[in-house]
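Late entry, written up from scratch paper. The run itself happened at the end of the previous shift, but nothing got recorded in the book at the time, so transcribing now.
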Amino acid sequence: NDPIITVTLTEPNTLHEKLGLQVELSSKLHWLEGVSGDYSHIKKLKVIGPISGTDFELMRYLAGYTLWTKETNYFGQLEYLDLYDAQIRKTDNDGSEETDGGVIRQDAQTYDDVLHLHALKKAMKLKTLILPKTCKEIKKRAFLQCDNLETVVIGDNTKKIDWTCFDDCSQMRYTYFLCSKKPEIVINS
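Output as recorded:
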């Protein structure tokens, strides 16, 4: 049994610092372009406090994502991610768009209490995900190419879910709703 590594953040976009990792950011919009340091031992992670764009991108790397190739990042071994006590915060940027191979990147653009488009894109090793209790909305394709995702726990305050967020979750077995009220389910909003 691997231990759960618990990290408490006081500022968003600082998860890499708390884990002792270095990140390479794009010069224009501060999107994550690379991670340095040993993170292969991180299999279970609990994050407490404010999280935002760079934090989400780092969590993707920890779970097997890599930006520049269609292959898996084999250093990323994160299988269990508990964000229940985290709060998603808006990413401040200048509203510009940057391209990645001709595709406009919106991956790192976050809004308060919204799980954004491609939030955990290609988190290929991730099996269990517990979403923040304060998350109000889950956008389409939030779990794009999360091929091994089996269990998702949806937080207490979720009011709207775009059901296409689960489109690529071929191993999905369990979805638990902790919501106080039934959330609105939409397709491609």
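The first strand starts at residue 5 and ends at 8.
(Scratch paper discarded after transcription.)
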